[in-house]
Amino acid sequence: MIHIRLPDGASRALSASSTAADLAASIGPSLAKRTVAAIVDGRLSDLSAPLPDGAAVELVARDDPRALDLIRHDLAHVLAEAVQALWPGTRTAIGPAIEHGFYYDFDRETPFTPEDLPVIEKKMREIIAARTPFTCEEWGREEARAHFEAAGEPYKIALLDAIPKGEPVTIYRQGDWLDLCRGPHMRTTGDAGTAFRLTRVAGAYWRGDANNKMLSRIYGVAFADKVALEAHMTMMAEAEKRDHRRLGREMNLFHFEEVAPGSVFWHPNGWRLFQTLIGYMRARQEEAGYVEVNSPDIMDRSLWETSGHWQNYRENMFLAKTQDDRDYALKPMNCPGHMLIYGQGTKSYRDLPLKLAEFGKVHRYEPSGALHGLLRVRSFTQDDAHIYCTPGQLTEECLKVNDLVMSIYRDFGFGDVRIKLSTRPENRIGSEESWDRSEGALREALDQAGHPYTIFEGEGAFYGPKLEYVLRDAIGRDWQCGTLQVDFNLPERFGSTYVAPSGEKLAPVMLHRALFGSLERFTGILIEHHAGHLPLWLAPIQVVVATVTEAADGWATEVAKVLRASGLRVETDLRNEKIGYKVREHALRKVPVQIALGAREAEQGTVTIRRHGTEGTRTLDLGEAVDCLARQARPPRELG
RNA sequence: GCCGCAGUAGCUCAGUGGUAGAGCGCACCCUUGGUAAGGGUGAGGUCGGGAGUUCAAUCCUCCCCUGCGGCACCA
């Protein structure tokens, strides 16, 4: 006999070598029917595994959220079986459950095409309908190796070799098909269910390493039931509607051209939005003691050698050979230029902290496959700044940047911010000691701010460790924006100094920081976050004044003039169209405020306002309307 | 950069080995109307670029460019 503890605290006696399936059956037939896995002493496991005496066991039903990964992982196996049934000789690599679904990597002479997916899916549904039991077997290493060698599965042998000595080698079998697998799995292929869909084929490097062979990956989405699958599909459609590339076109904000891949052509409306962001940031920075500068876009190779970019970053730089046979580079970062500005004149400790800000446009030759609308471009504008301070001021300055960036994100409606701390990478400059100090300063600032963070070992910049601020948007997606980096190296390389109270010349410490990060990217994120419906203070066109009849043209022109005088961005629409047509068009362009004027308003000196997001219309006196709109259109925080 | 897919009017897309079509948009005309599409007429295309096959290529083949989905990269 063994004794099992249940989550409610009850204890149950079962005969020796009983399984979780037996436990479920002993409780009741309907429970047994619903149960697909068990959590034994905190670990998800198969129903068929014998339970140890004294184990704490919780039974997991198929509709339990914790069963979702099992459904997805089961489907990965079913996918692999289907593929090998259809194309014998296809080699299998790995097939995990992932967020929203699963994938399996295959090695095959000719990669899969989208046309293969319905065929594979059909086969998968046959395998599921067969309700073949999953069984777990423990094999000897040599036995497993011999099997996969005979089966022509080199990737499985590599995975087998990666299993630490002493750990068991488990094989999961479904009918005639088997896979090297840690498990667990559910009872039969039938438990995987039919709420899944194969979505795409993609290339993926074996073990995620670009030096390895590229395998052919098949992705699927899967959920516990059709309702959840449909909800996911709806969500995908919603995300597509928010796509800033589509909205950018519909709202006439920007476009791209083949002649400048990864570089934005800003249209008047997009540029207004962009400039509104810069204006806001300029005011916030001024308030925080920054001074704005500007440095050249193209500078000689020797500068980049001094900064270390030539040695560490050249493959990402746009290079230019000039008629006088000099090597220039378009700046990929603003820091070297700022070093030269700092270097002008003698700096005293009284000048520190010195905060040089620049809305500098940087160019980086990003890999072609990385480009993505405004979110990953080859030329972009940073709200960059470099803070020169004494070692003693370092932590306080980090804290100030942290406070500023969090305050700014709040103004834009991003309350959910995560921080990543990336430490020294393999490819780096500077002494271990300065890295210790830099990493220590960032840690200390974060600890003092009391903000939780995640450490990413080896992901820092070549000149220093960095903090990265990751925003979560309205539909739960994460975007990396701001960054804060500590740098002892560049001041040293440039021989930067300040005169200390003792009269001694010392090297300042430098902070690199960008809060929006890239203005281009931040604009894209805002568009997606708001689904194009930007808050009034950011909307490129805040108000359209549209006429119902020609009789109101004069009044409309007057109203627009008054609104503009109060600082609002206003367009008039005097076209020979019906008001319904105009309303529809401006609503689709996501103009937040529409004012309709007909004979009535013209006569009474009033305006009829239609505000996006609210029902119906309101008719007000012009003066009242201007006050109200101008107030609503102010930036979210009073600027100093 | 790698794997796959795609590129036809401003946009969304149809189409064919014999030099192209729709809807929306645009222009003009009629209509002067009250909150998500009033009606008519018309203009608009080097069918991404280059080479090849062919009597003939937007269509078939190859190369390149760009985009899309992943992978890798992302100071």
TrEMBL record:
GO cellular component, one term: cytosol
Transmembrane segments: none
Location of the TGS domain: 1-61
Key word Magnesium present: no
Domain called Aminoacyl-transfer RNA synthetases class-II family profile: residue spans: 257-535
Residues given in the record as Zn(2+) binding sites: C335, H386, H512
UniProt GO BP: threonyl-tRNA aminoacylation
Compartment list: Cytoplasm
Keyword annotations from UniProtKB, A to Z: Aminoacyl-tRNA synthetase, ATP-binding, Cytoplasm, Ligase, Metal-binding, Nucleotide-binding, Protein biosynthesis, RNA-binding, tRNA-binding, Zinc
GO molecular function, one term: metal ion binding
Co-factor note (free text): Binds 1 zinc ion per subunit.
Main location (coarse class): cytoplasm
EC number(s) on file: 6.1.1.3
Cofactor(s) the record lists: Zn(2+)
PANTHER family: THREONINE--TRNA LIGASE, CHLOROPLASTIC_MITOCHONDRIAL 2, THREONINE-TRNA LIGASE
NCBIfam families xrefs: thrS (TIGR00418)
UniProt record similarity statement: Belongs to the class-II aminoacyl-tRNA synthetase family.
Assembly notes: Homodimer.
Name of this chain's protein: Threonine--tRNA ligase
Species per Swiss-Prot/TrEMBL record: Pseudooceanicola albus
Upper classification of the organism: Bacteria, Pseudomonadati, Pseudomonadota, Alphaproteobacteria, Rhodobacterales
Gene: thrS
